[in-house]
Amino acid sequence: MSNMSNSTKTLGVRFLDAYNAIDKALRIQYNYKTTISFSDLIRHCADLNTVIRSHENDLINFARLRNAIVHSSDNNKVIAEPHLDVVLLMEKIAKLITTPPLVADIIRQRQVTIIDATRSLYDLIKETGKTGHGMIPAYIGNKLVGIVRWRKLIEDLATILDTNDLDSFIRKTSIENYLRMYPQTGHFTIVHKNITIEQALTIFNNNRKIAAILITDNGTAMELPIGFLTNADIIDLVKIIESY
Questions:
Q1: Residue 68: which of 57, 82, 86, 87 has the closest Cα?
Q2: Which end of the chain has less neighbouring CB within 10 Å, N or C?
Q3: Tens-place pLDDT, residues 116-169
Q4: CA triplet 37, 43, 48: central angle to 5 degrees?
Q5: pTM of the predicted model as reported, rounded to 2 decimal places
């Protein structure tokens, strides 16, 4: 695919390069056959890819434009030139699809806060107050026990307030035992280190119950995390995509 620095190519050729790069990448990534049209490909991928979803209408319109700027009997012969703004947008989308930014690129400098699940709820509350994090992954060794949500913890503690000595409960109950008594499931997922920013956004967008993404080398619960995203990071992820 050509880029802005390649002044030897016309706008029409650059547009077609970007168009073909998007077409090829999406068919390979989502296993669509060449028999499906580009417009239908975009419609299907809009449910699978946040970048495509946000540019769905543009890309469908650009499919019509593509048919207008090439000779019907020779798809490589440009008979009209698209506007520069159109070409730049197509090249940006192609770059996001073919060489997407990785989550690892933005979390490399972040330190993930975790806590030993054998420690008490009292220790967890202190850690939450110190870090300000609303969710903290709890581990025993390299094994993930669960991710404790502060809001859920407060709700659970309120239910035992009338029947138990709250101070004794939070000091004597381990995080591991608390998660057994009050399971917290379905609010996070684990992914491998090569996840892209677009894929992370798609996870959040396609399942509103997901509040956190835990990132490990191989995407398993038997590894310490190398990154941690919450739905509070969505705005920053979108900004990275927009400025990429």
A1: 82
A2: C
A3: 999 999 999 999 999 999 999 999 999 999 999 999 999 998 887 666 688 889
A4: 120
A5: 0.83
Two structure tokens written together for 128: 């939450």
Q: Is domain 105-243 classified as CATH 1.20.200.10? A: no
Where in the sequence of the chain do the CATH 3.10.580.10 domains occur?
105-243
> Long-range contact list for 223-228, CB < 8 A, 24+ apart?
223/142, 224/114, 224/139, 224/142, 225/112, 225/114, 225/137, 226/104, 226/107, 226/112, 226/193, 227/103, 227/104, 227/107, 227/110, 227/112, 227/193, 228/107, 228/110, 228/112, 228/113, 228/137
Q: pLDDT, tens digit, for every residue of 71-85?
A: 655 666 777 889 999
